[in-house]
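Re-running Bll5862 protein to confirm reproducibility after the cluster update. Everything else is unchanged from the original entry.
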Amino acid sequence: MQVSEAQAASVTSYAYKASLIGSAHRFELTEEGLSWHIAGRSGLWRYEEISAIRLSFRPVSMQQHRFRADVSRAGGGRIAILSTSWQSAALMAAQDNGYRDFIAELHARMAKAGSRAVLTAGLGRITYAAALALLAVLAVAMAGLLIRALMVGEFAGALFVIGFAALFTWQIGGFVRRNQPRSYAFDCLPEALLP
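Result of re-run:
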């Protein structure tokens, strides 16, 4: 059975390695739906069967610029699609353009199929609120350390606290800002959650 040129042109694919050991996770957007192959398992989810997509920013120590899409199916099942791929024990490579194109095309095909999926971005509301509360506690503690260092004349300690707070704000601030919980539409993907 041969695949026609029109059918081949209508297939969009994406693959990444989630770990050093094991095969790549492969995904294809076909006319029928989202086809996936993960760890010896495979399936085809029709676009109208996809019940939810959550986009988020998920940096890790080996890759500070990593994005994730969690795709859920009505009746059960969830697939994670990451924007990075393991290359070696010390290298995780970004696949920004491929990931962005695949996610945009998935949304376009779902919209065309008349999907009623719930589209959310960022962390869950409870998780986000807990993260903000923890950050508030840490800010109060850092302010207390800074005031104490200034009161006893430990200016080197005060500079250290200021430097650490600036680094922490730069690292965690981007994560918190990008992962603010919100909803979005098929034709208006959140730019902060795409590479």
